[in-house]
Amino acid sequence: MSAKDYQKDYYKTLGVPKTATAAEIKKSYRELARKYHPDANKGSAEAEDRFKEITEAYNVLSDEKQRKEYDEARSMFGGFRTAAGRPGAGGGGTFDLGDLFGSGEGLGDVLGGILRNRNRPGGGAATRARRGADVETETTLAFGDAIDGATVTLRLTGEGPCPVCGGTGAKSGTVPKVCPDCHGTGQQARNLGGFGLSEPCKTCRGRGLVVEDPCPSCTGSGRAMSSRTIQARIPAGVADSQRIRIPGRGAPGEHGGKAGDLYVKVHVQPHEVFGRTGDNLTVTVPVTFTELALGAEIKVPTHRGPAVTLRIPAGTPSGQVFRVAGRGIRRKDGTMGDLRATVEVTVPQDLNKNTKAKSALEDLRIATAGLDPREELLRKARQDWPK
């Protein structure tokens, strides 16, 4: 149950005293359920909400184990909420112990652990499981592998259980002892002025165990640096410098705790032909002046696929971008991005070896001598000259 569950008065919801028997609780529930059932209150949102509250309360109080935990938790913390002006209040407003735990471990989880430890035979507790640390590493992919996805081999170096003592932290032939201060729970209660709050035990640092004769290799920490090699799948479409999370492949946990996560920062090598903008691939296609001026059909390369034919209309300017649909990067929803092809006119570097082409260009220059492509540019530039 969560912190909000413990704050609710289920006995009041069902209209029974805290000493009510299981039969009395059941009887009251049936009467209230018939009264507020949605079928008997068509279209009443208030009756529907009341029916949900009644059912929630009955589910807890009708279960012997849940009822016991609920009763102990409420008696321990007095209902969890202390309004201003009541004994133990610390000022204006209402104070909620659930806020002390932030977005990490819930109050219900902590209380559940306290009650389970209290009910364990002998009053002790098993050593608290600890989640392994997250691990970060980097890898470099070829451009094509980043687009299509790839399985990479990663060599990880980090903390893990000490191979000499097996993670116990104790010297061979000895075993750790239960911490005398927290009795193995790894937690200690701290007084908050009328309230108690659990925090990691300072003696054992939350491990629940104390090592009297430490392992010479790890000096009692139970941890040691080690290397391991794993295979990791990098999803298709990963971008340069993107961080990929691989759950459960980080450092192993302690005492049955879950392993941490692995975070892989991916570096993508540039491609000689293709570039990338979001989910689209880009390519610059060289064309001749006559292909742009007169129009043409040209071949455009695609990534790891056959070339496609692109039709260029007559009079196309250099730098025009054409869209080739569905030849880009696969998105998470399965659709494909586009290939954006930019046509760029190429200028012949040496026409001395091709006198026919040179002569044709000379004829073109003579034929277009009266056309000045810069005339409009110069006219606009003169508009803001002083009069």
Record keyword descriptors for this entry.
HSP40/DNAj peptide-binding domain, elongated, 387 residues, alpha+beta, 26% strand, Helix Hairpins, three-stranded mixed β-sheet, 26% helix, four-stranded mixed β-sheet, 10 helices
Mean pLDDT: 81
Shape descriptor: elongated
**How would you spell out the order of helices and strands?**
HHHHHEEHEHEEEEEEEEEEHEEEEHH
Instruction: Work out the strand percent.
Output: 25-35%
Largest sheet features: 4 strands, mixed
Structure description:
There is one protein chain. The protein is an alpha+beta fold. Among the domains are: 3-119, Helix Hairpins, CATH 1.10.287.110; 276-348, Urease metallochaperone UreE, N-terminal domain (HSP40/DNAj peptide-binding domain, Sandwich), CATH 2.60.260. Helices cover 26% and strands 26% of the residues. The chain is built from 10 helices and 17 strands. The protein has helices spanning 3-7, 10-14, 22-36, 45-61, 64-77, 107-119, 143-148, 289-294, 355-367, 375-381; strands at 81-83, 94-96, 135-141, 150-161, 177-178, 187-191, 196-200, 209-210, 223-234, 243-246, 262-268, 274-277, 280-287, 296-302, 305-312, 321-324, 339-345. The strands form 7 sheets. Strands 12-13-17-16 form a 4-stranded mixed sheet. The protein has a 3-stranded mixed sheet with strand order 3-11-10. Strands 1-2 form a two-stranded antiparallel sheet. A hairpin with a 2-residue loop joins strand 14 (296-302) and strand 15. Helix 3 (22-36) runs antiparallel to helix 4. The chain is elongated, with a radius of gyration of 37 Å. Residues 78-126 have low confidence and may be disordered.
